[in-house]
Design brief:
The complex is a heterodimer of chains A (216) and B (216). Chain A has 216 residues and is α/β, with parallel strands linked by helices. Chain A has six helices and eleven strands. The radius of gyration of chain B is 20 Å and the shape is globular. The chains are: A alpha/beta (216), B mainly alpha (216).
Chain lengths: 216, 216
């Protein structure tokens, strides 16, 4: 079980905005977060990953406390068991596809197996600039999973891809989540996309949940 | 040879000093950073003779600083090669800082965040992600610093004088040959500086062109 309550304002950028969300994710669930731009979707993921510090709240993942404002506890990202997939892939340009996965999983055979899972073991020696957008995102997906995280956080992973690739990569994400059984949280601005992939959907508007757990 | 030795010393020292300093300037959000940054860039616009004059006053055995350095550490920085290295470092620092700072700023934040969420701490991230992706900037800084050091005249003349085999670098030797009306020898020195400067700029442009192709 992952349970969190987060409150965070954006004093500098948007003084009137406050993200305030409390939610519990079942282990192995695949939850989607939808909402318009600026509704706090990415901020929510970044707070869970430790990339941003909330003003108040707590984050508990499978019995482990990652953040607790009142106890002044905040584990840095490297000590939280998360796999984060960035919108712009964030592959390391100086490393090959295999090198990128090995960054998270030193064992070469295991890293190759991860690439094989997304059909890219034959491109293991290619650098990111030698890969297509879809291939880059596949590498990013398995790189984030290679550490076997407790929480897989996907921040608009399909938004930079064209329509055909979105559907294909969406299926790939779904398959990976099922194979690994990881608890996943996917942020997207497309309700259709999230509805197709996720078992639960949260809708955020202006930093607050307006609907949750409605059946898909 | 003396000029080359000076150039190599200054470039190596400034790379070591410049990396943490430029990283701090690029990342710090404190308001007073700009004051410090401006101070370190001052020699970019200050006439070299002014810089040389103040260094001469500062390191003179009659000043508290110069006296302290000489009596405690045995360092004589006026009219010595060591003094030339220090003076050239002061004059060349902004060139290294500008190149490195540009490199640090251009580095996508998501690369650092990806590294953190993949379990690497800040120091590991600096060495495994930041530095390997800073090669072009570091090389640009090295080339411009080296070329500037070779051509530096005012600062080195003020602090080093023109002692053959100790502080007489090629730019000073060229000036003296012109003053003595020995144009043939002056041409030799001038051509050496011209060729080295052109080689540096050629190297920079070639690298820039190559990295543009890779990014595409």
């Amino acid at each position: 079980m992952t349970h969190f309550y987060l409150r965070k304002g954006r004093a500098n950028l948007d003084p009137g905005f406050t993200l305030e969300v409390e939610f519990a994710l079942l282990a192995g669930s695949f939850t989607g977060v939808v909402g318009p731009s600026g509704s706090g979707k990415s901020t929510l993921l970044r707070c869970l990953a430790g990339l941003e510090t909330p003003d108040d709240g707590f984050v508990e993942v499978q019995g482990q406390r990652w953040y607790h404002a009142q106890q002044r506890l905040s584990l840095p990202p490297q000590h939280r068991s998360v796999g984060f997939v960035f919108q712009d892939y964030a592959l390391f340009p100086h490393l090959t596809a295999l090198g990128n996965v090995q960054f998270a999983q030193k064992d070469r055979a295991k890293a190759l197996a991860w690439l094989d899972l997304v059909g890219l073991s034959n491109l293991a020696d290619r650098f990111p600039h030698q890969l297509s957008g879809g291939q880059k995102q596949r590498v990013a997906l398995v790189r984030a999973l290679a550490r076997e995280p407790k929480l897989w956080l996907l921040d608009e992973p399909l938004s930079a891809l064209d329509e055909d690739l979105r559907a294909e990569l969406g299926d790939q994400i779904l398959l990976l989540q099922k194979q690994t059984g990881v608890t996943a949280l996917l942020v997207s601005h497309s309700l259709a996309e999230v509805s197709r992939l996720c078992t639960e959907v949260l809708e955020l508007r202006a930093g607050h949940l307006v609907a949750d757990r409605y059946p898909v | 040879m003396l000029s080359l030795e000076l150039g190599l010393w200054v470039t190596a020292l400034l790379a070591v000093i410049g990396l943490p300093l430029a990283w701090w300037f690029a990342r710090s959000r404190r308001r007073w950073t700009v004051w410090v940054e401006s101070l370190f860039s001052l020699t970019l616009v200050l006439p070299p003779t002014v810089v040389g004059f103040y260094l001469l006053v500062l390191f003179s055995p009659f000043s508290p600083v110069g006296n302290f350095l000489e009596t405690v550490f045995g360092w004589k920085l006026v009219f010595t090669f060591s003094g030339l290295v220090v003076a050239s470092c002061v004059a060349g620092l902004p060139f290294m800082l500008t190149a490195l700072r540009t490199g640090f700023v251009a580095l996508p934040e998501s690369l650092l965040e990806a590294s953190w969420t993949l379990g690497k701490g800040r120091l590991s991230t600096y060495f495994l992600v930041v530095l390997p992706n800073l090669k072009s900037a570091l090389l640009a800084g090295a080339v411009t610093t080296f070329a500037h050091t070779l051509g530096e005249f005012g600062v080195v003349l003020m602090l080093g004088g023109s002692i053959p085999g100790v502080t007489k670098v090629v730019s000073i030797a060229l000036y003296e040959q012109v003053e003595a009306g020995n144009f043939a020898q002056a041409h030799v020195y001038a051509v050496v500086l011209l060729v080295l400067s052109y080689a540096g700029i050629f190297l920079l442009n070639s690298l820039e062109r190559r990295s543009r192709t890779v990014r595409r």
